[in-house]
Structure formats: structure tokens, C-alpha cells
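Moderator note: this is an archived Q&A kept for reference. The question asked for a predicted structure of one protein chain; the sequence and the answer are reproduced below.
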Amino acid sequence: MADIYTHLAIAKLYLENNPGRNEIKNVRDFYDGNCLPDMCEFIEKEQTHCGKRTEETDLVKRVREKVDLHKFLETTTPDTDINRGKFLHLYADWVYYNDERVVEKIRHMDWAEYQKTLTYSTGFFDDYIPQKYGVSLSLTSMEKDLSMWLAKWKARRSEKLGISGNSFGGKLLYNRTEHEAFIELIARADLQLLAKRFRQSPA
């Protein structure tokens, strides 16, 4: 799962990649939308990502059903900058969880290893991504709320891994090169074409 800074980096590159045909009018709303699906403290991510909570015994099915873009588009039209941001966020997560390289790494894990690996991978590049892509929480209109949410998330991350920071030493679902390629790939998305595609078919 992509972290907040990765989603901000994707959003920034998306804006840079589309200067001529860019439909985004309110840039802060777009950045906000790219963060909002993960800012869920009192509801499950299955709701914000329109996915399913599949059995823990079938991890491949579980990750592939974490995000349902067809379901999202049944109730949400990406015709505002916030909703376009949400759609780009969900598309990024959908690509991530359907990447065969990620699926293969997860395929032979048990539930405990999967939980730790996902937690370890999410946020591993939190220090590197802001420097590489020049992004920060100040790009949004929710900097204070995001900072508080991120601090709580990092505390839960360390608690779940039983350590502090990135010293867990576990597997990464993407290495740095793969992570950068993922950011570049999603930032080249055509949201209008994707909306048309996923309205017609769930996958």
C-alpha cells in the first residue's frame, strides 16, 4: 500500500505531466483527495477504498479485493478535484495490490508475516520520497490534521513491528527502484479513460 508521501508525489507528478490538458482547477483540493482515503481512524479502509474484507487464509484474494474501482465509480463521479484525487489514490492502490511481483511475495506468507511486511513496506520511504520529489504535507489544506494522523500511524506502525523506525529488517514489497517506477507509472494515468474503463468492468 502506498504511503501518504507517495500519494503526494504521484499527485505532484500528475499535475506536472498534464500542463496542457489538465482538468485540475483547485490544486489543494486535488492533493487533499489524494490523502483522504487513508485518513480513516474511526472507519475501516474497506469503506474508503470500496473493497472487501476477505478471509485471512487467502491473502492473494484479500489483497486483490482491497480496492474496488468499479464500486467507487458507482457512487462517486470524479468530476471535482477532490474526487479526482480520491480516484487517483485508489487507482494507485489498485495497481499496487494487483502487481504480480507484490502478489508473488505475499502468496506464501502467513497472516502474521503479511501484516508485518505490509506495515514495514508502507512508510519505509517516508524520509526519501519528500526529498526526491519535493513534496510535503503543506501541499494540502489539512497539514495539521495530516501531521497528527501520521504521527499516530507511525506509532501504531512501530508497535505492530515491535520496534522503532525502519529497523525491523523485513521484506519490502517494492524496492526503491520499483517504488520510483510505480510513482512514475501512476502519474501518467489518464483519469478520464480510467473512469470509463472501470465503469464498464470491475477489473
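Archived answer notes: The longest helix spans residues 143-161.
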